Amino acid sequence: MAGEYERDMNYVKTRITADGRDGYPVEPGRYRLVVARACPWANRAVIVRRLLGLEPVLSMGIAGPTHDQRSWRFDLDPGGRDPVLGIERLQEAFLARFPDYAKGITVPAIVDIPSGQVVTNDFPQITLDLSSEWREHHRPGAPDLYPEDLRGEIDEIGDLVFRVNNGVYKTGFARTQGAHEKAFTDLFEALDQLSDRLAGQRYLVGDTITEADVHLFPTLVRFDAVYHGHFKCNRHKITEMPVLRDYTRDLFQTPGFGDTIHFPQIKEHYYVVHRNLNPSGIVPAGPDLSDLLHPHGRDRLGGRPFGNGTPPGPPPESERVPDLV
Hints:
Blueprint lengths: L30 E6 L3 H13 L6 E5 L27 H7 L11 E4 L4 E4 L2 H10 L18 H15 L1 H6 L4 H22 L12 H20 L11 H11 L10 H11 L52
Parallel strand pairs: 1-2
Antiparallel strand pairs: 1-3, 3-4
């Protein structure tokens, strides 16, 4: 349909693996995960790194919430440079490997520290590889986020989850009325299906947190603060959909999820960067997000958040986010 938003899914496919078959073996301290707190796709990698306890072996660079046409910038760091990579913009790591790189400079990205070159920005594969290829370096008690016996179901439900992840963008960035209405309908049909599924089970697949939950949470937690108004996804707020509201509360209050969320940076990114949607650049003062701290009642459905494992410890001091209230 004319005016539909199409996401470019053409990423750098190189993988970091235990056997190093792409030329990049898993090595503690060799790589830097570059993220932005604002980005829901990067948020997945931040959550998985936390849950698996990979902080000691995979450092994390945090870009600021705004960017221009060139790239995400390290404007939160002293001197505006990442303290490990020594660069001002993530673009520099892409150009170091691909001098003529003309595609999007996206987060999450993993950079090879010795060479300063980007290895990959393939966000769907990054989290799967953190779970599988980096297993030797997982913390004791790390959960299995992609168990072999559930992978088929996780992948299947992942298609529905992606309709939500990408659907908010298709709704917000539609360039015609028809494209907006089509995306709007598809988005809320997918949310309704997920709500029906979650009405009778605590997590999306099985009785523990998996990749499926990691994928859905970043969109749901940003929904009321950004997507409902800024992207015109306004049939309902998540707080007006009881099952999804309580599911989001449950995950937000789970170590490794809510402690990765930086709402001021999330709001600044969307409302300042997308001047085509918000020409004034004014960041709204609301909404009140303290609902995320209310009781969720999902315990009645059973479930074991970390399976036979344990919750992660607190994040490193340098990676702490502001308290919600």
